[in-house]
Amino acid sequence: FAPKDMVGRKVLISAGPTREYLDPVRFISNPSSGKMGFAVAEEALSRGAEVVIVSGPVSISAPVGATVVPVESAMQMRDAMEAHFEWSDVVVMTAAVADYRAAEQKNEKQAKVSEHFTIELVPNPDILSGLGSKKGNRVLVGFAMETHAGVERAAGKARRKNADFICLNYPTREGTAFGGDDNQVTFVFPDGTFQDLPRMSKREVAEHLLDEALKRMQWAIQQ
Ligand code: C5P
């Protein structure tokens, strides 16, 4: 049985991909399944926490007891995360947010015009950075997928985004990350120190992640 060590804690989770529409029927997205975020939600619920999941379009069902706020685009995800931030104690950003959206979203389906077709993209806001800038005593956890220089890049992200730590995972390892039931993560801290975890189920990763988050929270409260 999980310890009920999160009773009264409020956990806000972003999960899944975002969709950036080009026109009413086409969008830019990625293969994020939402499994990692929903596993964090399940683990937090089993430990007695209240949970809100802001989720992009996913095909898995949310754990019983979680409040789900469905969104599609990064801008909608940002608004929903901002709206629930004040309420939260722990924020876990597992969502694979699209870095760019179309500069202009057409109201009508675009017809094929010629061989070459150029889409102008503009950067999406960084949701985690926005929340990090008003962090307070909350614990903020991000995810990052890197193919190279993982620890160094993740530590930089933790510092820039003001996250307590980043769960680094690897898109190219079999059975893990995108879509898989397992994950292999490294917790990377802003000072560049890190802790490697072996491959395990996403639910077990969630357990370790929340243990680490609780440690940070107790530390913050004592300061
Ligand atoms: O994409 P990147 O590797 O920078 O993502 C690191 C963390 O920042 C992830 O937790 C992701 O959910 C978050 N992020 C975000 N908004 C973005 C891009 C990433 O919140 N626009």
From TrEMBL:
Documented EC number(s): 4.1.1.36, 6.3.2.5
Region (Phosphopantothenate--cysteine ligase): 11-223
Keyword Transit peptide: no
Ranges of residues in domain DNA/pantothenate metabolism flavoprotein C-terminal: 7-214
Cofactor note: Binds 1 FMN per subunit.
Record-listed CTP binding positions: D99, K106, P125, D126, I127, L128, F143, K157, K161
Functional summary from the UniProt entry: Catalyzes two sequential steps in the biosynthesis of coenzyme A. In the first step cysteine is conjugated to 4'-phosphopantothenate to form 4-phosphopantothenoylcysteine. In the second step the latter compound is decarboxylated to form 4'-phosphopantotheine.
Name recorded for this polypeptide: Coenzyme A biosynthesis bifunctional protein CoaBC
Lineage, highest ranks first: Bacteria, Thermotogati, Deinococcota, Deinococci, Deinococcales
